[in-house]
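Internal tracking record. Fields below are filled automatically when a chain is submitted to the structure queue. Please do not edit lines marked as system-generated. If the sequence contains nonstandard residues, flag them in the REMARKS field before resubmitting.
Queue: standard
Priority: normal
Entity type: single polypeptide chain
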Amino acid sequence: MSVQFTPSNGDRSGVDNKLILISDGYSNVLEGDTPSANAAEQLKATGVDIYTVAVSDSSNLVELNNINSDPDSEHLFRVDAATDYKTTADRLLDRLCE
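SYSTEM-GENERATED OUTPUT FOLLOWS
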């Protein structure tokens, strides 16, 4: 995590850092104070904007909202029976390019 957004890995000064996590939201540990949420908090503290994409009808949205940046309504996207991948990808791309 600490080496992903560095100049040696392509980070550019003055350009916003954005991370997209595609997941069902179920970590391998208990919900809430998890290694994933803690790592996400560290990234957000450095200015990284985190977007999450829930990939099933039964995704753990609490966990994903603990990971993504605020506000949740602008940083959580869902792919489920009602929303296909292309529609979600288009909405996410629109948000990233704002």
